[in-house]
Design goal:
The protein is α/β, with parallel strands linked by helices. It is built from 12 helices and 11 strands. The chain has a 5-stranded mixed beta sheet with strand order 2-1-3-10-4, sandwiched between helices.
Length: 328
């Protein structure tokens, strides 16, 4: 019912906008209110409104009230939403090549992350523009880990594990096929907490910060201490709407966006460390596998990487990444 009301408001807001003579900018995200992401997003909102001299009214629809990320992309294409903060999964619905930065075990630290993102940003920006959207800035989720109700100490422990995989994420679904015996359960992100509570799933993958913010950690007892993949995040706007804005408003959005999404990247790294500490203090056991098992997990990750590269990633993108990181 709440989602129906919000969608109704999306449709009727333009009628009021004409009387107010203000530019209404409607933005969506699955990030919950109270999270680091939304705290900074509201700072961005206030900065855009202030620098526009009150000509712009920015409205965030947070916490997945508009549905999952594919739903928000559909709303942008329909002109009912103007922009969104998306994970790599969401942006990958527009161009799957973006997911090259989220290949399993590809990047080992944030220094490599920064080199790859900075090196590929012009390429990604151009590809997304061709598909009708404008990348305003790069945010960040961070490195992703496995969490579960049962301990995962070895590769064999994953057999028969009911693990959430993001519905509509063909990239992740393909990668999970390389994990022997895992039972991947596709669900929208907004259904995960309920699915954990009811036993539909018994595990998930996410960053420590997002897992805490979404309250998923309240339903599990273990975390596998292996960063399996880097999770990207992006802020985009629908191109037709962006092009319709006055030039000075476009410039303000880009400048303010770059500033605040750089803040998010820095904050996310610090807050992921804090979240990891909070997870340990909450009683969740953080399992560090043996060197032998870590190698086995790494081999599975390599096989998953080969599969998704072959199916989804353009060769020229991988060549650029290999050049940046050195051939692996």
């Amino acid at each position: 019912m709440k989602r129906v009301i919000v969608l109704f408001l999306l449709l009727v807001v333009p009628l009021a906008a004409g009387a107010q003579k203000k530019i209404i900018i409607k933005l969506g995200t699955v990030a919950p209110e109270g999270s680091t992401y939304m705290d900074v997003a509201h700072q961005l909102e206030k900065a855009v409104e202030a620098r526009s001299g009150g000509r712009v009214d920015v409205r965030w629809y947070a916490g997945g009230v508009l549905g999952d990320e594919p739903d928000m992309i559909r709303l942008m294409k329909l002109g009912q939403l103007h922009g969104a903060g998306l994970t790599g999964m969401g942006l990958g619905q527009i161009d799957i090549a973006i997911r090259a930065v989220e290949l399993p075990f590809l990047m080992k630290n944030y220094s490599e992350v920064d080199k790859v993102l900075n090196g590929l940003f012009p390429v990604f920006k151009s590809r997304i523009l061709e598909r009708g959207f404008v990348i305003i800035g790069i945010a960040e989720n961070g490195f992703v880990y496995f969490f579960g109700k049962r301990p995962i100490r070895t590769v064999d422990d994953i057999r028969g594990y009911k693990m959430w995989v993001w519905a509509a994420d063909s990239f992740a679904i393909e990668a999970f096929k390389s994990i022997p015996g895992v039972l991947s359960i596709p669900l929208p992100l907004t259904d995960v907490l309920t699915a954990l509570a009811t036993g539909i799933i018994e595990g998930f993958y996410n960053t420590p910060l997002a897992a805490v913010a979404l309250q998923w950690t309240t339903r599990v007892k273990y975390m596998l201490d292996i960063p399996v993949v880097y999770g990207s995040a992006w802020f985009i706007m629908e191109k037709r709407f962006f092009d319709s804005l006055p030039a000075d408003i476009q410039r303000i959005i880009v400048e303010v966006g770059n500033h605040y999404f750089n803040i998010i990247r820095k904050s996310a790294r610090e807050d992921n460390k804090k979240a990891l500490k909070a997870i340990a203090e909450s009683g969740i056991e953080i399992i560090k596998p043996s060197p032998e098992e870590e190698k086995r997990f790494g081999q599975i990750g390599l096989e998953a990487r080969k599969k998704v590269i072959k199916k989804f990633i353009p060769p020229e993108i991988m060549q650029r990444i290999e050049k940046i990181l050195g051939h692996r």
